[in-house]
Each structure stands twice: as C-alpha cells, then as structure tokens.
Amino acid sequence: MLVVNLFKHTQKNILCLRSASTINNNAVNNSETTTQPLKTWEEIPGPPSLPIIGEIHHFLPGGSLYKLEGYNLQNHLYKTYGPIVKMKGHFGGPDVVMLFDAESSAQILRAENNSPKRPGFMSLEYYRKVVKRKKGHSDKYTGLITDHGQEWRELRSAINPIMLQPKSIKAYNEALDEVAQDMVARMKSLRNENNMIKTKFSEEINLWSLESIGLIALGVRLNSFDFNLPMDSPVRKLIKMVHEFFAVADILDFKPSIWRFYPTKTFKRAMKLYDELENLNAEFIKKTVMRLKTENKPDDEKSVLEKLIDVDEKVAVLIASDLLFAGVDTVANTMIFIFYLLAINPDKQNKLREEVMNKPDRRPYIKACIKEAMRLMPVAFGNLRETSREYNLLGYRIPKNVFVIICHQHMALMECHYPRPHEYIPERWLVDKDDPLYYGNAHPFAFSIFGYGARGCIGRRLAELEMEVFLARVIENFQIQWLGEPIKVRQSVVNYVVEPFNFIFKDV
Ligand code: HEM
C-alpha cells in the first residue's frame, strides 16, 4: 500500500513539474537511490548572487524580484528556476534552499523529525541566549521557539500531553464559547449605520484571540473587551508589542540586515522590545500564579499554566509566555481570511449557516470551511528546517546546516495537488474518494498549515477549537459581506490583511 502511495505521489510530482512551462528540466530526478552523480551545491538554480550582499540587488528597483513578495515571489522563483531554488545568505545570514516539491519536502521533514531544528527567530534567540545570559540569567531553558535539541525536547514533553490531547482541549469549549459570545456582542455594538465595524477590525480580532488564549493559557479573563480599557493598559500594550515583535523579527530575521555585525536601530529596539514583552508576560503570569496558589481546582478545569505548574513552575512561565505571543496574531489573521472567503462566497456561507443552525453536535462543514481557507489564504507561507546532515534532493547535494524553506503556500495552490486550486471549495475536504476534488489525491506534504511531526504547532488543537467556536457564533448572528476591491495581503513573518477592512456584518 505504501509503495502504491509513493508511486502515486511521485507521479503527481512529476506532473507538477511538467505543468509549469518554464521549469528547469535538470531538476526532475527525485530519488535518494539515483545512479547519476549528484550535482553540486553551486549548481542549484537560483538568482545570481554577489559576495556579502547575496541577492539583495534583485529586490532593488530595476531588479527581477523588485516588489515581489509572498505567493508572487514564490511563484516567480518556481517558474524561473524550478522546484528547488537556492538563495545565498546576505550579511552573515545563512544560505537558504526553497522547495516547491512535495516529495522532497517529505524527505527533509521526515528525516529531520528526530531532533528537528526550526531556525527563524534568530534575534529573539540572540536576546534569550546571549543578552539575557549576560544580564545574569542562567536558566537551562529559553523557550519552545528558541530552544533546540535536548532542551527543546524536555520542554516539549512537558507540554505535549496538555496541549495535544483532544480531550483536554475539548474541556475549554465552554470557556471559549463565552469569549466568542462576548466578542459577537462587542461587534454588534461597534457597527455604524452601514453595519461596518467603526474601529480597526484587525485590532478587534486580535482582542478576541488574545482574550481566548489568555483564558486558556493563564486561566483568567483579561477583560480585553472592556470599552473603558485605557490605551496604556497591560492588555493593549501586550497586543501592540506582539504586533511589533513580528514587525522587528521580520526586518531582522527575514529581510537583509547587518545586525550580526553592527547593532542597527531596529536591533536595539528589538532587544528592548523583547525585554519589555517578557516582563509584561511575566507580570500576567505572576499574578495568575499568585491567585492559583490559593485555589484548588479539579484537573479538567485547570488552565494550561496551572497544569504546567504542577509539573514545574519555571517551565510553566516560559511556555505560557511563548503561547501568548505565538497564539495571538496567527489565529486572528486566519480568522480574518476565513471571514473574507465566506463573504465573497455567499453560497458556502449559507450552507455553513444551515449546518450551524441545525446541527449543534456534529459540524463537518465548519471544519472544512476553516481548512479550505487555510489552504487558500494561509497565515504562514510554509515551514523551515535546518539540515542536520547531507541530503540528495532532486539530484543535488544539500550540505549540512543549510536552511530549507518548505513552500507550502505555493504547493497548496498547485493544480496537480488541488484541482481548481484558486477557488474556495470546502467540499474538497468532504467528498468521496472517487470525486476528482477529493483532498486525498494531493500529496500529503503539499499542504501542512500547522507544520509537521514532533515540532508541529503545539497550539493546533486549541487554534482549531477557538476558530470553530467563534466562527459558529459569528455565522449564527451575522451575514458577512465584503465591499469593493479584493482584500490585500502583506507577507511578513505571518501573512497579514492590509487595511481597509471592508466587511459588513448584517444581522441574520
Ligand atoms: C491558525 C493558527 C496557527 C497556525 C497556522 C500555526 C502554525 C504553526 C507552524 C507552521 C508552526 C511550525 C511547526 C513546525 O515547525 O513544524 C508552529 C509552531 C508553534 N506554534 Fe503555532 N500556529 C497557529 C496557532 C498557534 C496557537 C494558538 C498557539 C498557542 C497556543 C501556537 C503556538 C505555537 C508554538 C509554541 C510553536 C513552536 C512549537 C515548537 O517549536 O515546538 N500556535 N505553529
């Protein structure tokens, strides 16, 4: 069976390659067992690079990649160079290989699953491992996002049973529903005479996701929906800082930056911000810890923090802090994409409303609507692994310690994996095997919104539940519409929706 599946997927991959007209034909060989000599690292196709600055000049006015970002950049690289593209590191940054081939992605993700290293937030890692330690912090762990190897494994095994067991996450259903209902009430009161939200919609949705994650991670209502919340309140500060965190990380870690050689203004700002963010998180967590010491709840009513404190208090604080900032923007932006796709596909929205109103216990269509939105408009462009050994990918030798970007956003929009890929068709996740739209015909590593394996998203189950519960309440209360031009997306560390937010929320 496994052999048949592999054959099916290898065949599909070849079709994917052939479907792009200008694809580099040298890159078709996809087997570890090839008898052909491997091509060298230097031979991997990609934009020509210059010493020190790598490929930066291509992104400047007049360059071939000028103003390209997100899906458009990925598509341009794929069409020009093929399913594997090399980008040289700039200013001391690492060399990167971008993969648009699902089978090679599977090869890397599976082989790196023992001790997966997902680099990315390098400036945060620097702050936690160098700056903080210089200030005298000597903790063994730095956090789920910045630790690797043995330390990461120990942290992860403390949190896995709490965050990944469907039963323990299901227990938060009621609490999340309470937050969802409060948010719906807030949205109703924030509408103008045209049924549009008067305040900045992305901030509103961020308040909802912060309130949800705060309740689950810390076990307290943060009262983010309070209309009298001062602009300098800790909750508003937290949201602002999480936003800023992603903005500085984007500049330092995902764009050309010389911070490794010279402390730029953004670098200095980042170090200060990371410090402020940690202190603010610590404040929230400290208050909760104090309160918890006087309470004794049964296990199924405990928050993530409470459950972790039973294991180890220091680890609890570290993990709760990472959950707070990894769980806000990701869910909020995904939710905006879901609203948008349902607004411009009213037939799907009506079908969803039918399910929400009539089937309280089993709701497959809502899950399909969310999944399809994440395929079509993902909040993350893909995934990342650092190679721990050499590989043969598509006939090229890939050295150790190279960053491999797995371009899921692009692969999930390939016709060979998902027929009619640019259409919003939640049904593809529900139809039978003999239907051409059946999702199982896609390579299983083409679309993987929550990442893969041992290092996959720890908040996955919680995110899914949060979104289902909130979406059901919104659909039950509002007919969602979108006015005017299509929505604009900006790629940063996560994909953001750019203003204006032309949503109309009419009472049902
Ligand atoms: C739609 C929402 C979300 C998406 C699409 C998403 C996506 C991802 C992805 C792609 C990864 C990398 C996985 C890998 O390396 O294989 C990740 C890691 C992570 N996510 Fe999420 N995430 C979401 C929501 C959340 C939430 C709600 C939380 C917190 C409760 C969270 C916490 C984390 C943490 C802590 C990690 C690092 C895990 C580790 O390295 O062990 N995420 N997420």
From TrEMBL:
Residues 173-200 form a coiled coil. GO terms for molecular function: heme binding; iron ion binding; monooxygenase activity; oxidoreductase activity, acting on paired donors, with incorporation or reduction of molecular oxygen. Keywords: Coiled coil, Heme, Iron, Metal-binding, Monooxygenase, Oxidoreductase. It comes from the Eukaryota. InterPro entries: CYP11_CYP27_families, Cyt_P450, Cyt_P450_CS, Cyt_P450_E_grp-I, Cyt_P450_sf. Heme binds at C457. Its cofactor is heme. The keyword Cell membrane does not apply. PROSITE patterns: CYTOCHROME_P450. PANTHER family: CYTOCHROME P450. Belongs to the cytochrome P450 family. This is Cytochrome P450. It comes from Parnassius mnemosyne (clouded apollo).
